[in-house]
């Protein structure tokens, strides 16, 4: 058998990294040899969690071509692998996105369920298979659930996320102040860190004949960022648009503390689409919407507005 790896998309977030590590641990505990990997650069938040919790870094890999077997977690679209594997190499998909292309992984067993974090699905696998995760994996999965649910404020949060959080917390609670420190760490966008974070947090979607870039930042203190660095934000967006050959681009900032989103774009078409689907009014290229809404929730709304109703795929949900 060819070697088996667990990984997430290129430049993974904490959910993707935590899932890759914990699921490899579960597989190995059940007699299936697998190695956790990351491609590209994990987010600042993921790096913070790995170092603060003392978790060994997953192996760095930049390609799985041509023969290795891969399990992808918190990911379900070939485009997010940037040609570093072919869909046929993927034997399993575990993800929580409504808009996905899991059907393109023709050899994979697929689990797509709409919970707040893919980490919840991995924690449930441990529970179902009657395996207790290591302390570090239990903590990493909790950090991922907290991160992906915006501390349980995101609309995508479900009772299953809370139940797995509780289960993991009882066996290995996170250190004091970990959550606060994690949110503060990911809100540090001083100097060049802003463009770097925006680069990592850019996702590209093909909708009809349009390529749309959506940059999502999660932070506390977004009012000051937008006030003090709006022109820089707009310039970064424009340079990303040109570099990635995009038709449209916008930035969505989830402010976990203020409990709102700020949208930034100079693109009039995107402004009017966001006004149409979310009721956001733009003043000087910035729009504010109360309540936290995540990119994965915005995507289907925009897709519907740009190309008509979203196709529902026949997912092989296991
Ligand atoms: Mn996720």
Compute the average pLDDT: 93
Portion in beta strands: 15-25%
Bound molecules: manganese (II) ion
Would you state the CATH class of the largest domain? Alpha Beta
Q: What's the assembly state of these chains?
A: single chain
Element order: H for helix, E for strand: EHEHEEEEHHHHHEEHEEHEEH
The number of helical elements comes to 10
Indicate the CATH topology of the largest domain. Answer: inorganic pyrophosphatase (n-terminal core)
| CATH level-four homologous superfamily name of the largest domain | inorganic pyrophosphatase (n-terminal core)
Strand order within the widest beta sheet: 3-2-1-4-5-6
Number of strands: 12
In total, the number of domains comes to 2
Biggest sheet features: 6 strands, parallel
Low-pLDDT sequence parts: 312-318
Tell me what the CATH architecture of the largest domain is.
Alpha-Beta Complex
- The CA-CA distance between the termini, in Å, is 24 Å
The dominant shape is globular
- Into which percent range does the helicity of residues fall? 25-40%
**Cα-based radius of gyration, to the nearest Å:** 19 Å
Secondary-structure content class: alpha/beta
What does this 3D model show about the protein?
The C terminus is likely disordered. Helix 1 packs across helix 2 and helix 3 runs antiparallel to helix 4. The chain is built from 10 helices and 12 strands. The strands form 2 sheets. A 6-stranded parallel β-sheet has the order 3-2-1-4-5-6. Strands 7-8-9-10-12-11 form a 6-stranded mixed β-sheet. The chain is of the alpha/beta class and 318 residues long. It folds into 2 domains: 178 residues, inorganic pyrophosphatase (n-terminal core); 119 residues, Roll (Diaminopimelate Epimerase, Chain A, domain 1). The site of manganese (II) ion (MN) has 6 residues, from loops.
């Amino acid at each position: 058998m060819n070697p088996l790896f667990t990984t997430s998309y290129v430049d993974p977030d904490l959910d993707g990294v935590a899932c890759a590590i914990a699921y490899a641990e579960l597989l190995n505990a059940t007699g299936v040899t697998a190695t956790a990997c990351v491609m590209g650069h994990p987010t600042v938040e993921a790096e913070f969690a790995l170092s603060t919790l003392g978790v060994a870094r997953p192996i760095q890999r930049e390609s799985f071509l041509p023969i290795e077997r891969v399990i992808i977690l918190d990911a379900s679209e070939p485009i997010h692998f940037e040609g570093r594997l072919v869909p046929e190499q993927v034997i399993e998909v575990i993800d929580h996105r409504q808009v996905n292309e899991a059907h393109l992984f023709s050899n994979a067993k697929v689990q797509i369920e709409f919970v707040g974090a893919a980490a919840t699905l991995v924690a449930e696998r441990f529970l179902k298979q009657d395996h207790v995760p290591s302390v570090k994996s239990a903590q990493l999965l909790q950090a991922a659930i907290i991160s992906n649910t915006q501390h349980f404020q995101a609309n995508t949060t479900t009772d299953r996320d809370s139940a797995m959080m509780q289960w993991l917390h009882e066996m290995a609670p996170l250190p004091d102040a970990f959550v606060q420190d994690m949110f503060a760490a990911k809100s540090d966008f001083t100097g060049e860190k802003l463009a770097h974070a925006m680069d990592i947090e850019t996702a590209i979607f093909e909708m009809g004949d349009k390529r749309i870039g959506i940059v999502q930042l999660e932070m506390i203190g977004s009012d000051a960022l937008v006030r003090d660095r709006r022109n820089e934000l707009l310039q970064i967006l424009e340079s990303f648009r040109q570099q990635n050959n995009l038709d449209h681009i916008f930035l969505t900032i989830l402010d976990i503390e203020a409990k709102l989103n700020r949208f930034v774009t100079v693109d009039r078409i995107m402004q009017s689409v966001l006004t149409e689907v979310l009721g956001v009014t733009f003043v000087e290229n910035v729009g504010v919407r109360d309540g936290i809404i995540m990119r994965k929730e915005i995507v289907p709304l925009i897709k519907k507005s740009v190309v008509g109703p979203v196709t529902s795929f026949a997912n092989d949900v296991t």
